[in-house]
Design goal:
- By secondary structure, the chain is an alpha/beta fold.
- The protein has a single domain (about 25-125), classed as Sulfite Reductase Hemoprotein, domain 1 (2-Layer Sandwich).
- It is about 35% helix and about 20% strand.
- The chain is built from three helices and five strands.
- The protein has a five-stranded mixed sheet, with helices on one face.
- Strand 1, helix 2 (about 35-45) and strand 2 form a beta-alpha-beta unit.
- It starts with a helix and ends with a helix.
Length: about 130
Protein backbone atom coordinates (compact mmCIF):
# COMPACT_ATOMS: atom_id res chain seq x y z
CA UNK A 1 0.00 0.00 0.00
CA UNK A 2 2.84 2.39 0.89
CA UNK A 3 4.61 1.65 -2.41
CA UNK A 4 1.42 2.40 -4.32
CA UNK A 5 0.99 5.73 -2.49
CA UNK A 6 4.60 6.61 -3.20
CA UNK A 7 4.13 5.82 -6.90
CA UNK A 8 0.97 7.94 -7.10
CA UNK A 9 2.70 10.78 -5.28
CA UNK A 10 5.62 10.65 -7.74
CA UNK A 11 3.25 10.71 -10.70
CA UNK A 12 1.37 13.69 -9.28
CA UNK A 13 4.59 15.57 -8.55
CA UNK A 14 6.36 14.99 -11.86
CA UNK A 15 3.52 14.99 -14.40
CA UNK A 16 2.97 18.78 -14.33
CA UNK A 17 6.66 19.49 -14.84
CA UNK A 18 6.84 17.06 -17.76
CA UNK A 19 3.72 18.51 -19.37
CA UNK A 20 4.85 22.09 -18.78
CA UNK A 21 8.08 21.72 -20.73
CA UNK A 22 8.39 24.39 -23.37
CA UNK A 23 8.08 23.62 -27.04
CA UNK A 24 11.54 23.48 -28.65
CA UNK A 25 12.59 26.70 -30.37
CA UNK A 26 14.78 26.36 -33.46
CA UNK A 27 17.17 29.23 -34.13
CA UNK A 28 19.42 29.63 -37.14
CA UNK A 29 22.43 31.93 -36.98
CA UNK A 30 22.66 34.42 -39.82
CA UNK A 31 25.72 34.25 -42.07
CA UNK A 32 26.83 37.62 -40.64
CA UNK A 33 26.93 36.34 -37.03
CA UNK A 34 30.29 36.31 -35.26
CA UNK A 35 29.24 34.59 -32.03
CA UNK A 36 29.93 30.84 -31.96
CA UNK A 37 26.93 28.52 -31.66
CA UNK A 38 28.61 26.70 -28.75
CA UNK A 39 28.66 29.93 -26.71
CA UNK A 40 24.95 30.46 -27.38
CA UNK A 41 23.92 26.91 -26.50
CA UNK A 42 25.90 26.96 -23.26
CA UNK A 43 24.51 30.31 -22.13
CA UNK A 44 20.91 29.76 -23.26
CA UNK A 45 20.83 26.66 -21.04
CA UNK A 46 22.29 28.60 -18.09
CA UNK A 47 19.65 31.31 -18.49
CA UNK A 48 16.70 28.93 -18.44
CA UNK A 49 16.26 28.41 -22.17
CA UNK A 50 17.40 24.81 -22.52
CA UNK A 51 14.67 24.25 -25.12
CA UNK A 52 16.62 26.18 -27.79
CA UNK A 53 18.24 24.30 -30.66
CA UNK A 54 20.63 25.82 -33.17
CA UNK A 55 19.80 24.64 -36.69
CA UNK A 56 21.75 25.15 -39.90
CA UNK A 57 18.77 25.21 -42.24
CA UNK A 58 17.03 28.60 -42.02
CA UNK A 59 13.84 27.12 -43.50
CA UNK A 60 13.51 24.90 -40.40
CA UNK A 61 14.13 27.77 -37.96
CA UNK A 62 11.49 29.59 -35.93
CA UNK A 63 13.87 32.56 -35.65
CA UNK A 64 17.09 33.78 -37.24
CA UNK A 65 19.61 35.36 -34.90
CA UNK A 66 22.26 37.81 -35.99
CA UNK A 67 24.76 37.84 -33.11
CA UNK A 68 27.82 40.12 -33.14
CA UNK A 69 30.45 40.09 -30.44
CA UNK A 70 31.31 43.73 -31.17
CA UNK A 71 34.28 45.74 -29.94
CA UNK A 72 34.38 47.00 -26.38
CA UNK A 73 36.61 49.71 -24.99
CA UNK A 74 35.48 49.62 -21.38
CA UNK A 75 32.53 50.99 -19.40
CA UNK A 76 33.97 54.53 -19.41
CA UNK A 77 35.14 54.60 -23.01
CA UNK A 78 38.72 54.71 -24.20
CA UNK A 79 41.67 56.79 -23.17
CA UNK A 80 44.79 57.65 -25.12
CA UNK A 81 46.20 60.28 -27.42
CA UNK A 82 42.83 60.77 -29.10
CA UNK A 83 39.83 62.44 -27.49
CA UNK A 84 37.92 60.10 -25.14
CA UNK A 85 35.23 58.07 -26.87
CA UNK A 86 32.02 56.81 -25.28
CA UNK A 87 31.75 53.13 -24.46
CA UNK A 88 30.48 50.97 -27.30
CA UNK A 89 28.26 47.96 -26.76
CA UNK A 90 30.07 44.64 -26.69
CA UNK A 91 27.21 42.67 -28.18
CA UNK A 92 24.64 43.40 -30.84
CA UNK A 93 21.94 40.77 -31.15
CA UNK A 94 18.97 41.01 -33.51
CA UNK A 95 16.28 38.34 -33.70
CA UNK A 96 14.26 37.93 -36.89
CA UNK A 97 10.99 36.08 -37.48
CA UNK A 98 9.45 35.70 -40.93
CA UNK A 99 11.90 38.24 -42.35
CA UNK A 100 11.10 40.94 -39.76
CA UNK A 101 13.29 42.13 -36.91
CA UNK A 102 11.26 41.35 -33.78
CA UNK A 103 13.84 41.94 -31.03
CA UNK A 104 17.20 43.62 -30.60
CA UNK A 105 19.59 44.24 -27.73
CA UNK A 106 23.00 45.93 -27.37
CA UNK A 107 24.26 45.36 -23.82
CA UNK A 108 27.87 45.71 -22.77
CA UNK A 109 28.25 42.02 -21.82
CA UNK A 110 27.55 39.35 -24.38
CA UNK A 111 26.09 37.01 -21.75
CA UNK A 112 23.52 39.73 -21.05
CA UNK A 113 22.53 39.69 -24.73
CA UNK A 114 21.89 35.94 -24.52
CA UNK A 115 19.84 36.48 -21.36
CA UNK A 116 17.81 39.24 -23.08
CA UNK A 117 17.04 37.00 -26.08
CA UNK A 118 16.10 34.17 -23.72
CA UNK A 119 13.65 36.41 -21.84
CA UNK A 120 12.12 37.57 -25.12
CA UNK A 121 11.66 33.98 -26.30
CA UNK A 122 10.11 32.95 -22.98
CA UNK A 123 7.66 35.86 -23.18
CA UNK A 124 6.72 35.22 -26.79
CA UNK A 125 6.21 31.49 -26.23
CA UNK A 126 3.83 32.12 -23.34
CA UNK A 127 1.45 34.12 -25.55
Amino acid sequence: MKARRAAILCILLFTPSILAQDKPVNIALSAASTTPAAFLLENFAKDGCANIAIVLDESKADYILEAHEGDFEGPRGSEGSHPPRPARPKAQYTLFQNGKAVFGTTPIREKSAVKDVCKYLQKSSSK
